[in-house]
Design a protein that fits this description.
It is built from six helices and no strands. The protein is mainly alpha-helical. The radius of gyration is 21 Å and the shape is rod-shaped. Helix 3 (33-56) packs antiparallel against helix 4.
C-alpha cells in the first residue's frame, strides 16, 4: 500500500465498513465467540510478525508509516472482537501511534499490544473451556435426572 493510499484510509472507518458488510456495527459484532477468538489470534500473530520485522532491521519512513497504519487498524479489529469492558481496557492502555513514529516507538507499541493481546487470548480460551465444561456438566446432570425418572428412582 502506498503512502498516499494509507493517508486516505481511516482504520476505524475501514473497520466500520467491514462490519457493516457483515450486518453489524462496532457496538454489535456479527462474529461468534469462536470467530472473535480466531480473529484475535490472527491479529496477534500478525502483530508479533511485524514486531519481529521491526526488531530485525532498519525501517525506512514508508515502512514506519505502514507499521503505524497497521497498528491503528489492528486496534480497531481487536476492539470489535472483545467485550466492551476489555475494549475500554484497551483504550486505557494503548495510545495511538503517530504516522511518523520512530522504530523505537513502534517497537514499544507493538510489544505492549502483543503482550496484552496474548493475555486476552489466554483468558478467552480459559473462559471458553470453562463454559464448555459447564455445558457438558449441565447436560450430564439432565441425562442422570432423566434416567432416574425413567426407572422411578425419584
Amino acid at each position: 500500500m502506498t503512502n498516499q493510499a494509507m493517508q486516505g484510509i481511516n482504520p476505524a472507518a475501514a473497520l466500520e465498513a467491514k462490519l457493516a458488510s457483515m450486518g453489524a456495527t462496532s457496538g454489535e459484532s456479527a462474529l461468534t465467540g469462536a470467530e472473535r477468538l480466531s480473529s484475535l489470534v490472527r491479529v496477534g500473530s500478525m502483530l508479533e510478525s511485524v514486531l519481529e520485522n521491526i526488531d530485525q532491521g532498519q525501517l525506512d519512513e514508508e515502512a514506519c508509516q505502514r507499521a503505524a497504519f497497521t497498528f491503528g487498524a489492528s486496534v480497531g479489529v481487536i476492539r470489535s472482537a472483545v467485550t466492551e469492558t476489555v475494549g475500554e481496557e484497551l483504550s486505557a492502555i494503548i495510545t495511538p501511534i503517530e504516522e511518523h513514529a520512530s522504530p523505537q516507538t513502534l517497537r514499544l507499541a507493538y510489544s505492549q499490544i502483543s503482550g496484552w493481546l496474548s493475555s486476552v487470548v489466554s483468558s478467552e480460551m480459559a473462559r471458553g473451556a470453562a463454559e464448555a465444561l459447564s455445558a457438558v456438566m449441565a447436560g450430564e446432570t439432565v441425562q442422570v435426572e432423566e434416567k432416574r425418572r425413567s426407572i422411578g428412582y425419584l
